[in-house]
Amino acid sequence: MQPAVYRILDANLDRAREGLRVIEEWCRFGLNHAEFTEQCKHLRQELATWHHSDLRSARNTPDDPGTGLTHANEATRGTIAHVLQANFCRVEEALRVLEEYGKVYRQDLTEAVKHMRYQVYTLESQLITQHRHQKLHQAMLYLITSPSETVFETVEAALKGGLTLVQYRDKDADDLTRLNHARALRRMCHEYGALFIVNDRIDLALAVDADGVHLGQHDFPVELARQMLGSQRIIGRSTHNGDDLYRAIQEGADYVGVGPVYETPTKAGRPAAGLDCVRHALEQCPIPWFAIGGIDANTVHDVLAAGAQRVSVVRAIMQAEQPTLAVQYFMAQLDQKRRSQMGQKFAKQDSITDPWM
Predict the structure, then answer these.
(1) Is the pTM of this model over 0.90?
(2) How far, in Å, CA of 65 to CA of 78, rounded?
(3) I need a labelling partner for 104 at 20 to 30 A (CA). Which of 54, 118, 328, 342 fits?
(4) How far apart are the C-alpha atoms of 101 and 15, rounded to whole Å?
């Protein structure tokens, strides 16, 4: 029995360390996150102290029937999130095997691995949160869906155009329809590496494992939503004036919608807040904010000129003849705005530091 146990321990020590290295590389080069990188490195090194020569010497790769086994899901990884998820699962499974078989090898190995397993669970949670918030900060264009017989085709076309943030909004459909649509859209968004947000419904967001929820002014308080959703998921809040914006920031919203800038049938009966709300957000909002309301190819230039760096749209994409091109047009305008601001920032810095100016 001893050689078999040793081979199991050897294989799973290798498996856990390999998986941690994959995660560590993304923390180091993808996120530039020193703390996460150090955590992965520490775990790898701690596992290495248990990888004794007696375990290594029991290795018998030529006679291992598992070396030729594979699964279709292992052949491709659609996104970085898929890579990280697969390797966290690999590490956690390996640690569980080490914990169980360690009981017939050394009790101190079992205790050490059990402690490490909980550390990995915590790291996974922190990394998911970091990944989601990083993508939120990078997002410039936010698509909010409207009921449509072609909602799936339209959203996928938008994703092909480079869209990275989608909110599912349908206030009239029955719950079963919304559940099925949300599941399908969440799966589609994640295949393209985009965040998926659910409008209003915290229960629906949890049911489909959405990346977050967007709340209106008369929906759940952000604090209660955070208790239900946990720290990993994103919470957005609609704001219509300066007071709304201040409260959303104080409540701990991760991002806000600012508007409606122009009158829109999506918010029937609500008067337009105008470009002043954009200028106010530019001065007062430290968290990501998206100008919203009647923004299309004709109005986006004025919204950007007023200071917006991110915009939310509904009809301009959902009703577009070619949603992919519509997304690419908005992205080009937003990117041009970002580049212009970066150029102005660098020019200002140069004027301050250049002694010849």
Answers:
(1) no
(2) 29
(3) 118
(4) 15
Same domain, 123 and 26: yes
Residue where a domain stops, chosen among 110, 134, 158: 134
Q: Does 266 show up as a binding residue in the annotation?
A: yes
Give, as one character, the DSSP assignment of residue 267: G
> Which residue's structure tokens are 């990188």?
37
DSSP, collapsed to helix, strand or coil, labels residue 110 as helix
Q: Looking at the structure, tell me whether residues 177 and 307 fall in a common domain.
A: yes
Do 295 and 148 belong together in one domain? yes
Counting the structural domains of the chain, the total is 2
pLDDT (tens digit per residue) in 273-332: 999 999 999 999 999 999 999 999 999 999 999 999 999 999 999 999 999 999 999 999
Q: 170: left (phi > 0), else alpha (psi -120 to 50), else beta?
A: beta
Judge contact between 254 and 136, C-beta under 8 A.
Answer: yes
Give the active site residues: 169, 238, 267
Structural domain of residue 179, as residue ranges? 139-351
Convert 201-229 to b/e letters by CB count within 10 Å (16 or more is b): bbebbebbebbbbbbeeebbebeebbeeb
348 annotated ligand binder: no
The answer on whether 64 is annotated among ligand-binding residues is: no
Q: Is 236 annotated as a binding residue?
A: no
Reported residue count of the chain is: 357
Determine if residue 264 is labeled as part of a ligand binding site.
yes
Quick one: pLDDT at residue 357?
38
pLDDT digits (tens, 9 = 90+) for 109-127: 999 999 999 999 999 989 9
DSSP states of 38-94 as a string?
HHHHHHHHHHHTT--HHHHTT--GGG-TTTT---GGGS---SHHHHHHHHHHHHHHH
The rounded distance, in Å, linking the Cα atoms of 144 and 134 is: 20
